[in-house]
């Protein structure tokens, strides 16, 4: 699929998409809670659909209700098939592997696209310590596991991704029979662990931690209880809308929780530092263009912000610096290189120095033929930059946005952008 973005001035109001990070975690918690849960305002992008498929294969019954909500009925992890397919979702593959291992059944964890190139050797190191047989294909998918997982005191490396810890936290929460502790070294993306703990507590499973270094579990009579859980707006997807407003026109974005635990709420700080017009209220965020100045931003805890922040920096008058490029290697693409290549095609100089991305903004941003690298966030960054480019921007493999934000092109069009999808 190709998306053509014609330079446009945008205006109006748009509602942020639902959070896929919360949606996938809520699916996992509903699987672990014996009874009927309801997911309100569900997100239904490709990663969310993968999570719904996984929990059905692990024994849950999923019902799409007339009011648009989703009911999930479960009796715990009781696999119906010998394999679960995670699509291209890194979170689903890493979160559901320990959860699936609660069963004594032999299971295969598979995926597709860029997911099959992402590292999974963590599980070969950790799961055998928890009574789970585990083999991989050279440290990558497919994984072959056989439990049941038995929680015990364990120490893990949290430097690659918090997603591995999320899976262990949720699985341990369902299975502990005596006090145990997970000790974590060098945890990255702590706000994503806050999301995990938030969802677990909402479903009745509270745990404590010592500054994200030791996570303590106590036995409970009932580990997870069924709930009605509402999916809040997604700051990751909304970041692209907010940047679009900062460079291309006055807009209002609704549906975001300004008190959210989501890491990508940090986009507000970047927008403030850039000097755009910004008004933040509890029910709406208003953003609009102004002379934009360069900024320095540490994205180590929120690496998904790199693409929208890089697009913003392209229009700031000077050199902006973003820290944390080491977090971008094992995404849907090598995002640091992809940003450098695609913004480079649009005339924006992007330097990669050690752990820094330096963007020389303020020059002419040209319309160009660019490539998403089959990465949803690269496609959206190019689309947003194209709103203020000199000429038409044509994005190939533009369907990659379906992974996290299927409606993004329609939302831009609703704000008055000229977007053609063919």
Describe the overall structure:
The radius of gyration is 21 Å and the shape is globular. The strands form 6 sheets. It has a 4-stranded mixed beta sheet, with helices on one face. Strands 2-15-17-16 form a 4-stranded mixed beta sheet. Strands 4-5-3-14 form a 4-stranded mixed beta sheet, with helices on one face. It has 2 domains: 205 residues, UDP-n-acetylglucosamine1-carboxyvinyl-transferase, Chain; 202 residues, Enolpyruvate transferase domain (UDP-n-acetylglucosamine1-carboxyvinyl-transferase, Chain, Alpha-beta prism), CATH 3.65.10.10. The mean pLDDT is 97. Strand 18, helix 9 and strand 19 form a beta-alpha-beta unit. Helix content is 30%, strand content 26%. The chain is built from 12 helices and 24 strands. It starts with a strand and ends with a strand. The protein is an alpha/beta fold.
Short synopsis of the structure:
By secondary structure, the protein is an alpha/beta fold. The chain is built from 12 helices and 24 strands.
């Amino acid at each position: 699929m190709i998306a053509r973005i014609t330079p446009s001035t945008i205006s109006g109001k748009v509602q942020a998409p639902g959070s896929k990070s919360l949606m996938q975690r809520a699916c996992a918690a509903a699987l672990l809670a014996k009874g009927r849960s309801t997911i309100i305002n569900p997100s239904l992008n490709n990663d969310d659909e993968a999570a719904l498929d996984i929990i059905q294969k692990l024994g849950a019954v999923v019902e799409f209700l007339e009011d648009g909500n989703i009911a999930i009925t479960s009796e715990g992890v009781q696999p119906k098939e010998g394999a679960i397919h995670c699509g291209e979702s890194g979170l689903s593959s890493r979160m559901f592997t320990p959860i699936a291992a609660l069963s004594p059944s032999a299971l295969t964890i598979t995926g597709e696209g860029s997911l099959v190139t992402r590292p999974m050797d963590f599980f070969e190191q950790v799961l055998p310590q928890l009574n789970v047989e585990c083999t991989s294909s050279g440290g990558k998918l497919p994984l072959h596991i056989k439990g049941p997982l038995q929680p015990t005191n364990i120490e893990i490396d949290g430097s690659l991704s918090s997603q591995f810890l999320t899976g262990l936290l949720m699985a341990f929460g369902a299975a502990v029979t005596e006090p145990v502790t997970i000790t974590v070294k060098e945890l990255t993306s702590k706000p994503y662990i806050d999301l995990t703990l938030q969802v677990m507590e909402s479903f009745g499973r509270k745990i404590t931690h010592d500054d994200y270094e030791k996570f303590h579990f106590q036995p409970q009579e009932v580990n997870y209880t069924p709930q009605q859980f509402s999916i809040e707006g997604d700051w990751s997807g909304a970041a692209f809308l907010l940047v679009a407003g900062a460079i291309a026109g006055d807009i209002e974005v609704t549906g975001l929780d300004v008190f959210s635990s989501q890491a990508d709420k940090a986009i507000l700080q970047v927008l403030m530092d850039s000097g755009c017009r910004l008004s933040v209220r509890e029910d709406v965020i208003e953003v609009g263009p102004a002379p934009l100045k360069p900024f320095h931003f540490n994205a180590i805890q929120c690496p998904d912000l790199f693409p929208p922040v890089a697009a913003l920096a392209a229009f700031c008058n000077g050199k902006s610096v973003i820290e944390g490029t080491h977090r971008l290697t094992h995404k849907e693409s090598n995002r640091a290189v992809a940003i450098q290549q695609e913004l480079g095609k649009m005339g924006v100089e992007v330097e990669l120095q050690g752990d820094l991305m330096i963007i020389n903004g303020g020059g002419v941003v040209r319309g160009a033929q660019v490539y998403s690298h089959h990465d949803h966030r690269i496609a959206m960054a190019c689309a947003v930059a194209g709103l203020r480019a000199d000429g038409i921007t044509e994005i190939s493999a533009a369907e990659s946005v379906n992974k996290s934000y299927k409606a993004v092109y329609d939302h831009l069009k609703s704000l008055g952008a000229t977007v053609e999808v063919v």
